[in-house]
Amino acid sequence: MEYTNFHDFGISDKVIISLSEMGFEEPTPIQKAAIPQALNGKDIIGQAQTGTGKTAAFGIPLLEQRPEVKSRFPYALILTPTRELAVQVCAELVKMSARAGVACLPIYGGQSIELQIRNLKRGVDIIVGTPGRLLDHIQRKTLVLKDVRTIVLDEADEMLNMGFIEDIKKILGEIPEEHQTMLFSATMPREILAIAKNYMKKPVHVSVDAGQMIVAKIKQVFYEVREDDKLKALTRLIDVEGPALTLVFCHTKKEVDDVSGKLQQMGYPAGALHGDFTQSHRDEMMRKFKSGDIDILVATDVAARGLDVPDVSHVINFSIPQDPEGYIHRIGRTGRAGKPGMAITLVTPRQYRQLRLIESSVKTHIMKEKLPTGAEVKKAREDELASSIEELIGEGKHSSLYHLADSLLEKHSPRDLAAAAMYLMLGETAIEEIEEIQTGYYEGGKKGVVRLFMTVGRKDKIKVEDVVRSIAAEANIPARKIGNIALYDTFSFVEVPSDMADRVIGAVNDSIIKGRKVKIGHARKRQQG
Ligand code: ADP
Ligand code: MG
After folding, report:
1. Which of 208, 227, 252 is the endpoint of a domain?
2. Is 214 a member of any domain?
3. Is 28 in the pocket of ligand 1 (CB under 6 A)?
4. Are 54 and 33 in contact (CB under 8 A)?
5. I need a labelling partner for 324 at 20 to 30 A (CA). Which of 16, 33, 50, 421 fits?
6. What does 68-102 look like in DSSP terms, one character per residue?
7. Is the CB of 78 inside a 6 Å radius of any atom of ligand 1?
8. Residues 366 and 409 in one domain
């Protein structure tokens, strides 16, 4: 039988209406493959990449399985690796069951256990939870599993990576003997197959073609950059691409803090997401990101696993993923809900082989692109200004200033006037020299030159000449010995000959430039950027 629409599954009208209200017109391939089998009560092993619609693939059958006689205790249990995913899966189920009236509850660590106990007491049909907290409730006997007929393991490979395997086995041992199991995973490592073998009854395998989904929708490119230039490359790409929402992936929590902090310092609306933040902070970040209050979310793999934010237009791998699965999971955060997506990976020359490995395992081609030049960045900024001016004229709000325009026009040409107004808007960036980013590999900076880091920047109304003048005067060295100076909002870099570095640091540290006390020191590798 060919399942071309949701009616063909023979599911209830209430659910079909909710699905159409969600904009689901046609089942996705994994849904076509899994739903009929699941409705028949079969155990399922589903393998499909992120963004293929796995939630509804198990969610729709679950809603259909609601028992006639209502119980206070859940009839289905869904295990997810993270709290974010528990919340997201639960939200999707709530939407799908808007008319069918099934009570779903997310249960995860980090939320008040008393609150969860109260909610559980009210009676729940489907629970979506993280393994640790679920076990906690099972042990406290605040979660009763005697009526569970179906258990779903969502993102099973990630639960394995996070060390939940023993917890999962314990939970599987607590539910009634007679039950259906559905296991979904983007990859099928040996340990997952072992669970399937030991805990599932003649499971039916369903899968959709690897590679296919992602490659079709997501444009994948990489840029070769030196480690030290990554941050510069990142901001330059953001400037030129003008993304809607960007998810930036880093390898470690520390790197997340670093990159998000630097972006904020440079005036980009960025937020950070990783496991060290409190739940309420993480919720707040997600809310801000979804609503566009922040356009850039810097995250670790774990924290951003499975997140579904339809407007994510760009995924940027600030650090290259550890393995091909990681790559799939990351880039699957864009190109959601049929929208186009772009995946960008920053690759240092040493990581070239890792990139090739990813390409061959994922069976995709990642194209090499050239970083935008300084001139292109400038043009992008100007274009943006031009289009916001056009937009403003379209809205007509500017007419309140006609009187001022008229009086200035008596003295100046329209050309001078417009250019001056635009100059005001661009500020310093209108004349700023944007230095080119080197590609190709070299260890340090220029030979015989070191970079120093200073704690003053543009916001302190410091200009390049001020830096040169102060250093030359304080350290008593010729101004021409002072090399590249890069000013950021709150800090800056200056290059000086290596043999003069200590003298400069000694003389300039704690001195006053334009009324501001400065700290100066060797730029750490991470800062060079
Ligand atoms: P996965 O778990 O495989 O990563 P999700 O279940 O999160 O994928 O679904 C990815 C996105 O596609 C979600 O925004 C979801 O609402 C949407 N989606 C799922 N099924 C359909 C469908 N049949 N038609 C349209 N959109 C769908
Ligand atoms: Mg999912």
Report:
1. 208
2. no
3. yes
4. no
5. 33
6. SS--SS-SEEEE-SSHHHHHHHHHHHHHHTTTTT-
7. no
8. no
How would residue 139 be classed by pLDDT, with cut points 50, 70 and 90? very high
CB 48 within 8 A of CB 58: no
Report for 293-297, 459-463, 521-525: range of highest mean pLDDT: 293-297
Residue 1 lies in a domain: no
Q: Is residue 51 part of a domain?
A: yes
Q: What is the pLDDT of residues 408-443, one digit of tens each?
A: 999 999 999 999 999 888 877 777 777 777 654 333
∠ CA 479-489-501, nearest 5°, is: 35
Cα–Cα nearest to 300, from 254, 355, 358: 254
Q: What domain count does the chain have?
A: 4
Distance CA 467, CA 459 (A): 14
Q: Is the CB of 271 under 6 A from ligand 1?
A: no
Do both 115 and 196 map to the same domain? yes
In this structure, are 390 and 505 located in the same domain? no
pTM exceeding 0.70? no
The predicted-structure confidence for 315-362, as pLDDT tens digits, reads as follows: 999 999 988 878 888 988 888 766 788 999 999 878 888 898 888 777
Q: What domain range includes position 418?
A: 381-430
450, 413: one domain: no
Kindly state whether residues 422 and 515 are assigned to the same domain: no
Distance from residue 171's CA to the centre of ligand 1 (Å): 27
- Least confident piece of the model among 79-83, 433-437, 484-488, 502-506: 433-437
Identify the nearest ligand to the CA of 213 by its number: 1
pLDDT-derived band of residue 528, with 50, 70 and 90 as boundaries? very low
Q: Which ligand lies nearest to the CA atom of residue 49 in the structure?
A: 1
Share of the chain above pLDDT 70, in %: 95
- Interval between CA 56 and ligand 1 midpoint (Å): 7
pLDDT score at 156:
92
Q: Which atom of ligand 1 is nearest to the CA of 22?
A: 16
Tokens 């809900």 belong to 337
Per residue in 71-100, is it b (16+ CB within 10 Å) or e — as a string?
eebbbbbbbbbbbbbbbbbbebbbebbbeb
333 Cβ closer than 6 Å to some ligand 1 atom: no
Dump pLDDT digits (tens) for 356-389.
Answer: 888 877 777 788 888 888 888 888 888 888 988 9
Which has the closest alpha carbon to 143: 57, 79, 58, 84?
79
399 and 488, same structural domain? no
Q: Which range has the worst mean pLDDT, 157-171, 279-293, 296-310? A: 296-310
435 part of a folded domain: no
Q: Closest ligand 1 atom to the C-alpha of 154?
A: 2
Q: Rounded to the nearest whole angstrom, what is the distance from the C-alpha of residue 308 to the centroid of ligand 2?
A: 8
Query: b vs e for 313-326, b when ≥16 Cβ sit within 10 Å of the residue's Cβ?
Result: bbbbbbbbbeebbb
Whether residues 57 and 132 share a domain: the answer is yes
Look at residue 128 in the predicted model and tell me its pLDDT: 98
Instruction: Give the residue from 152, 178, 208 where a domain finishes.
Output: 208
* C-beta of 21 in contact with ligand 1 (< 6 A): no
Q: Is the shortest distance between the CB of 51 and ligand 1 below 6 Å? A: yes
Q: Does residue 458 share a domain with residue 338?
A: no
